[in-house]
Design brief:
Blueprint: E1 6-16, E2 21-32, E3 37-41, H1 48-55, E4 63-68, E5 71-72, H2 78-87, E6 89-92, H3 96-99, H4 106-116, H5 121-134, H6 150-162, E7 168-172, H7 180-197, E8 200-204, H8 208-213, E9 216-221, E10 224-231, E11 259-263, H9 275-280, E12 287-291, E13 296-300, H10 302-305
Parallel strand pairs: 3-8, 3-9, 6-7, 7-8
Antiparallel strand pairs: 1-2, 1-4, 4-5, 9-10, 10-11, 12-13
Helix pairs in contact: 4-5, 4-6, 6-7
The protein binds adenosine-5'-diphosphate and magnesium ion.
Length: 332
């Protein structure tokens, strides 16, 4: 990707406690274009928060490369890190207690990062007012966090994160503690801000609605990106594969009419099969690979090891997952 805002290559994060080491990210690759809204999904413990903490420069990578808006996060010094956290990346967490200082009013919470960023008094007040109005909490400036609702707290948190107009917004399950109606309102706000301001957003979520409204959804498994689901520009007339076909997006579960899922392949050719594939097809740790001009097939070894079978039996009619257009005849 040219001019990516975020580039992670072979990113590794190891947490070392007294005598145990946890490899939270094990060679993760990721690129995000400026202005994209990307959802990050994955089981608990798969490394989502770890990744966001690295991208927010709240923690340092153990190995690999991680560059955001020209800042090499593996190399920056403390002063650059402070500057980066103030101006380049904003963070919204699930727990509002982590986003807002309880003893300050909403307006003071939004003003504080601007003070730290050296913004003058008048400009600060104007910016605070604009942000509160834009996010629908224009009348709540004088309230303290415990005097407003959960949804309003997350709106205030978004204002705090955007106070110094960062290029990247990192949101770690920002709607996780909200009821579904409030959650979708906050989500809609993020989507609008993304479009209006060209704000790049990386949002961790369990919510299929968040994933379906994002430009791209990345599934992370065991500290590596495994599959990616991209919204189709034009919905398909009918799902390929016909009635009864499973969702194209087997991992994330989005419909094939609107989304297309791919498995990510890194620079050296490694890929991670979705769990669904491993459950359905008994690979037992190795696979028989057949390379064609247009595609590659991965078969459980027994398929070609059957006695009497030719070395490379002609493959049966391909059962392409419904998200993939069937290859043209000439491609075979
Ligand atoms: N500060 C830490 N010290 C030790 N292990 C950690 C720390 N933070 C996270 N981990 C471990 O790293 C892995 C990834 O955690 P995390 O990034 O929080 O996952 P997720 O956000 O996807 O649930 C987990 O095994 C978790 O227990
Ligand atoms: Mg987490």
């Amino acid at each position: 990707m040219q001019n990516a805002l975020v580039t992670c290559e072979n990113l590794v994060k190891i947490y070392s406690a007294t005598d145990v080491e946890v490899v939270a990210l094990q060679g993760l690759d990721l690129e995000i274009a400026p202005g994209e809204m990307v959802a990050l999904v994955g089981a608990s413990g798969s490394g989502k928060t770890t990744l966001l903490n690295l991208l927010g420069a709240l923690d340092a990578p153990s190995a690999g490369r991680c560059v955001v808006a020209g800042n090499d996060l593996t190399r920056i010094n403390d002063a650059q890190r402070t500057n980066y956290r103030c101006f380049t990346a904003g963070h919204v967490w699930q727990q509002s207690g982590r986003n807002l200082l309880p003893e300050l009013t909403v307006a003071e919470n939004i003003t504080l990062p601007q003070m730290l960023g050296g913004v003058g008094g008048r400009a600060r007040d104007r910016r605070t007012r604009e942000l509160m109005e834009r996010t629908g909490i224009g009348l709540l400036g004088a309230k303290r966090p415990n005097q407003i609702s959960g949804g309003e707290q997350q709106r205030a948190a978004i204002c705090v994160a955007l106070a110094n107009a960062p290029t990247l917004l990192l949101a770690d399950e920002p709607t996780g503690e909200l009821d579904s109606t409030t959650a979708s309102e906050v989500l809609e706000l993020l989507r609008d801000l993304n479009r209006e301001l060209g704000l790049t957003i990386l949002i961790v979520t369990h919510d299929i609605n968040v994933a379906s409204s994002a430009d791209r959804t990345i599934a992370i498994r065991d500290g590596r990106t495994s599959t990616e689901t991209v919204r189709r520009d034009a919905p398909l007339a009918a799902p390929i594969g016909g009635a009864g076909a499973t969702a194209a997006s087997a991992v994330i579960g989005l419909p094939s009419e609107t989304h297309r899922e791919s498995i990510l392949i890194d620079r050296v050719g490694r890929l991670q099969l979705p769990n669904e594939a491993l459950v359905r097809v008994p690979f037992n740790g190795r696979a028989d690979v057949r390379i064609f001009d247009s595609h590659v097939e991965i078969w459980p070894e027994e398929a070609s090891a059957t006695p009497g079978a030719p070395d490379y039996p002609p493959p049966p009619a391909p059962s392409y997952p419904p998200s993939y257009p069937a290859p043209s005849e000439e491609g075979k």
